[in-house]
Amino acid sequence: MRVEKAGLVSQGGGQVKGSADPLGPSFEERLKGALQEVNAKQEGADRIVEEVVEGKTGIHEGMLALQEADIAMKALLQVRNKVISAYNDVMKMQV
What we know:
By secondary structure, the chain is an alpha+beta fold. The chain has a domain of 57 residues. Helix content is 65%, strand content 13%. Strands 1-2-3 form a 3-stranded antiparallel beta sheet, with no helix packed on it. Helix 1 packs antiparallel against helix 2. The protein is elongated. The N terminus is likely disordered.
């Protein structure tokens, strides 16, 4: 059982862990984490492609890694597009 509320996480055993910030990670931290995750998937896919070429890994593992990296990149681009759209909407507001 996992319950999250205001940065507190309870994991079955009754222990409560909290982050230093009671509101949880900031948008900047989440964005940096997402960028690092996408970058890791891209690097992993590159490494697996090299292994496929060398014959160490099957082609299906290579294709799966490439698809995972592609989906992660597309999701990140959609987030970027939404952020830019929101920024443009805010800039168009009259004060």
